[in-house]
Amino acid sequence: MLKAVILIGGPLKGTRFRPLSLDIPKPLFPVAGLPLIQHHIEACIAVTNLKEILIIGFYPVTQLQQFINDMQSQYKVIIKYLQEFTALGTAGGLYHFRDQIRSGSPDAFFVLNGDVCADFPLTELYEFHRERSLTSLMTVMSTEATRQQSLNFGCMVVDKTTQEVTHYVEKPSSYVSTSINCGIYVFSLKIFNFMGETFNIKQEEYYKNDNGNVNKDAGYLQLEQDILTPLAGTGKILALQTTNWWSQLKTANSAIYANRHYLGLYKQKHPERLATGKKAEQCTIIADVHIDPSATIDSTAVIGPNVSIGPDVVIEAGVRIKESIILDSAFIGERSLILHSIIGRNSRVGKWARVEGTPSDPDPNKPFAKMENPKLFNNDGRLNPSITILGCSVSVPSETILLNSIVLPNKELSRSIKNEIIL
Ligand code: GDD
Ligand code: GTP
User: What's the rounded mean pLDDT across residues 211-222?
Assistant: First the structure.
């Protein structure tokens, strides 16, 4: 039997994802029509004999309860949310809830960072680990990055013949390796012995230093620095490289990029989730597009490519939408154009308006390039060009232009804006 853990962090994290996460926790933000971590759940349930998924984070349980109930009724595995009392780090929660993870003696358990998106090769990862589990405690999924981008990730030196991780540095300041940690792992239960030893050493230090680090709980443990780094070179960590699509979801730009890839994956795995435009009275579809069945779209609208339209959205005549995410109950008035943008829940775009952002994709000329996750502002304090984002319940008047702008929730705009943040 197998289990999986999804790490989702909590309300203090993911600041780069605002304002999209102001009214919905980032793990529940819809990408290709599904909450972000539902893609993780679907990857887990596709693994034979996986019986339980534990979602660990420090969001108040009230923010996730409805989602957990929905997932539980939709899928036949046990799905639970375990709330940390405070941020315990990427390994502190695993150790804190170790009895829950160990119960029923699973053969191994997966750990997935909630903020990655991928064509998760979990079965392959488990098979690889199982064949070597006598000696190894864990297998890390790795992928190739460019030299420059590798510095933003956990970097691993991997022995090509044995696949052992001989050296691990989390976000190094100078080049170590282009093999990076994908935040996708499989562990044997024996890992808890090592975590326990590390935990005890850290506890001693914590109390010796008169609670030295007051910002962190005594139980705070980082999987990367406290577990992976010391285990590297002992023969107990292996890495399996994937060439499947993989990305992080840190910024709104990366949500548009992930949306496109998840829609692409539906072609093989869930063609029923893609709109075809073949039925009479349907609007023109340029693949790939996902439209929630409850959305109302005029037959003269042209939608796609790479668009997701949420529940109860209304789209009027002559609208054109491309490379965008339209969240639930949004309204797009007649003849408006939406390009490279995210339109928040309940937002309203008037007629003949133009809402446009600047796309950012991994550099196609650099092999293995990943999405950049730039800060909102550049060094002169100006907004970096980005996709346009309307927070929830924003209203855009008719005949206005919004370019590369971010509008916080509940704003009523009265004019056109360009490269601005409306607070
Ligand atoms: N439960 C819980 N508690 N989850 C946490 C906590 C915590 O205190 N802190 C972070 N997480 C979750 C985040 O929500 C995220 O899903 C994941 O753990 C990783 O957290 P970050 O701290 O944001 O790390 P990162 O994304 O910058 O880097 C990690 O992932 C990269 C791949 O995406 C590292 O593991 C890197 O080595 C790796 O390359
Ligand atoms: P920076 O703070 O920009 O460095 O982001 P980060 O790298 O710390 O992002 P991280 O990967 O830690 O963010 C991941 C988690 O934060 C997500 O899984 C969400 O659980 C959560 N999150 C992000 N932003 C918000 C927010 O504004 N509100 C709430 N409620 N949760 C958020």
Answer: 80
What is the ipTM, given to two decimal places? Answer: 0.83
The model carries a pTM of 0.91
How many Cα neighbours within 13 Å face the side chain of 165?
32
Atom index in ligand 2 nearest the CA of residue 36 equals: 18
Query: Which residue, by CA, sits nearest to atom 27 of ligand 1?
Result: 153
> What's the length of the chain?
423
Ligand 2 atom at minimal distance to the Cα of residue 7:
18
Closest Cα to atom 5 of ligand 1? 9
Ligand found nearest the CA of 15? 2
CA of 254 to the centre of ligand 2 (A): 13
pLDDT in tens, 271-329: 999 998 777 678 999 999 999 999 999 999 999 999 999 999 999 999 999 999 999 99
Q: Name the helix (H) or strand (E) containing 70.
A: helix 65-74
Long-range contacts of 230-233 (CB under 8 A, 24+ apart): 230/198, 231/137, 231/138, 231/165, 231/168, 231/194, 232/156, 232/157, 232/165, 232/166, 232/167, 232/168, 233/165, 233/166, 233/167
The rounded Å distance from CA 377 to ligand 2 centre is 18
CATH number of 273-422: 2.160.10.10
Beta partners for 241? 142
Assess whether the C-beta atom of 33 lies below 6 angstroms from ligand 2.
no
Query: For the chain, which residues make up each domain, given as ranges?
Result: 2-248, 273-422
May I ask the CATH class of domain 2-248? alpha beta
